[in-house]
């Protein structure tokens, strides 16, 4: 008999598995009282007790990550893009320069907005930095082109609006 089979056959492990199955069964009975969990189970084919426990684990991970999330999210937003920006500057092609210039404009704009309202954001959205980390990665990944999408949809129209008002004001004052 191998060591893995010995471990699987160990009475303490068998007792722990039986006890875990009992508690999962009890949780399943309790969750059956709520139609939302029954609907989730029917639509996803995932037992409602597993979905509930997965949600609890997700909340625990988000809460744990949030402890160090502010510096981690800023590190994620700076290290890889800084390296790839330097690499882009040294390459003869210009399309990668545009990608990283766009990233830095969007990232800087986002950090500016964040600095204005961080306390309010953290009050209403406790796991903000965990989601910010995912957002920053989305901005960076070439498959998603998140920075380009936000630049084209938010930053560029806003900049064009400010620029047209500035040129209108400059024209009006020169008369």
UniProtKB/TrEMBL annotation:
The family classification in the record reads: Belongs to the DP1 family.
TM ranges? 50-69, 101-125
The membrane-topology field of this record reads: Multi-pass membrane protein
**Subcellular localization, per the record?**
Membrane
Recorded hits in PANTHER family, A to Z, give:
HVA22-LIKE PROTEINS, RECEPTOR EXPRESSION-ENHANCING PROTEIN
The keyword Transmembrane helix belongs to this UniProt entry's keyword annotation: yes
Annotated Gene Ontology cellular components are: membrane
Its keywords, alphabetically, are: Membrane, Transmembrane, Transmembrane helix
Cross-referenced InterPro entries, in alphabetical order?
Answer: TB2_DP1_HVA22
- List the protein's name: Protein YOP1
